[in-house]
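Run Ribosomal RNA large subunit methyltransferase H through structure prediction, thanks.
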Amino acid sequence: MNITVIAVGKLKEKYLKQAIDEYSKRLSRYCKLDIIELPDEKTPDNASEKEELIIKEKEGRLILSKIKDNSYVIAMDLKGKQITSEEFSKFIDNCGVMGNSNLVFVIGGSLGLSEEVIGRSNYKLCFSKMTFPHQLFRVMLLEQVYRGFRISNGEPYHK
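Sure, done. The structure for Ribosomal RNA large subunit methyltransferase H is below.
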């Protein structure tokens, strides 16, 4: 299975980079992982809704340019479906069974994802109704993907 994470925003914190490296190493047993980091657009303080929409659309076009036609796209979206780790593991397995071996997880910038990206996605997933820094969320996503593979392989994991 090929898993790509497309994330808007640059990782700056060393401890987050180390966590990403650790989960990337762990995941190498189960899949080919590619992380594509895209620059975020600077949002001015007190930006209008129109300005925010323009920023999201610009980031969205850049995201879409990195998605191949044969990819199964999972948008990380607050309006998406919330599932358990076990359900997430089954979801990944089912994608493979259905011939979707190129999974692309998309993490938007601070303003979220554009309607174009949401429209291109095959599935919308929400980890929580809480808001997380997108840099930290990248680590959380990789941890859950790793956990999902452990579950599907009948390997121990912490509940």
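The two ends are 25 Å apart (CA to CA).
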